[in-house]
Amino acid sequence: MNTPPSLDALIDAASVIPVLAVKRLEDAAPLAMALAAGGLKVIELTLRTDVALDAMKAMQDAAPELIVGMGTIRTPEQARASAEAGASFLVSPGLTPELGEAMLATGLACLPGVATAGEAMASQAQGFEVLKFFPAEPAGGIAYLKALEGPLPDIRFCPTGSISREKAPDYLALTNVVCVGGSWIASPGDIDAGNWTAITANARAAEAMKGR
Ligand SMILES: O=C(O)C(=O)C[C@H](O)[C@H](O)COP(=O)(O)O
To answer: In angstroms, rounded to a whole number, what is the distance separating the alpha carbons of residues 92 and 132?
Structure first.
């Protein structure tokens, strides 16, 4: 197992983070290789499917250069199980005090989800430095993130939720955004159909947005 990255190393390696749901374990290895072939380094696998933890291991074995984190973490038990299974970082759609404690206790880099100024302040007070802004587009998108920057200039975000390939560069251009998440790089349809070449092309396009 690779050493998990620090939060700084994680956001340094990430630009667009593909948010993945793997339903069939046999898709995990070719998916990992397709994403790595496009040059992406950081991916988020969601805990939405029964095979998620096994799929994470299969992805790490198939493409050891990838930093594979676990997303859709909702309970302290899921945080602990994901860390024990070898997740390199943890992502949640929202945050409860109990979940925050469990996430911090893993020692892994964590991106807890928030959608409001109050949630962002509570997360920062609990010790989190970079927050997932979720669901980014329905919660107010770019205008909302710009409005948060005045009162909360020290909080950085990874917006995720309905962010298209076309909109991703506009999010990445915001000074309080360090990376964005999106399912468009490897959509459920492309994974189901085994469209690995298309996924590699999408990964390459996503990686090319880095530094914009
Ligand atoms: O599963 C989670 O933990 C979530 O928070 C939801 C995901 O971040 C979005 O589903 C990303 O998918 P798109 O909105 O299609 O880009």
So the answer is: 8
Q: What are the tens digits of pLDDT across the range 34-77?
A: 999 999 999 999 999 999 999 999 999 999 999 999 999 999 99
Full set of structural domains in the chain with CATH: 7-208 (3.20.20.70)
Pocket probe mutation, ligand 1, options 16, 19, 164, 202, max atoms within 8 Å of Cβ: 19
Compute the distance between CA of residue 117 and CA of residue 203 in angstroms, rounded to an integer. 32
The per-residue b/e assignment along 125-159, b for 16 or more CB within 10 angstroms, e otherwise, is eeebbbbbbbbbbebbbbebbeebeeebeebbbbb
Give counts: helices (H), strands (E), the chain: 10, 9
In tens, the pLDDT along 82-124 reads 999 999 999 999 999 999 999 999 999 999 999 999 999 999 9
Which residue type does 102 have? Answer: A
Peptide bond preceding 188 in cis form (omega within 30 of 0)? no
Ligand 1 center from residue 9 Cα (angstroms)? 23
Which entry of 44, 65, 98, 146 is annotated as an active-site residue?
Answer: 44
Going by C-beta distance under 8 Å and a sequence separation of 6 or more, which residues neighbour residue 201?
A: 38
What is the pTM for the complete model shown? 0.97
Give the bridge partners for 114, in sequence order: 133
- State the catalytic residue, choosing from 132, 146, 149, 166: 132
Q: Are strands 89-91 and 109-111 parallel, antiparallel or unpaired?
A: parallel
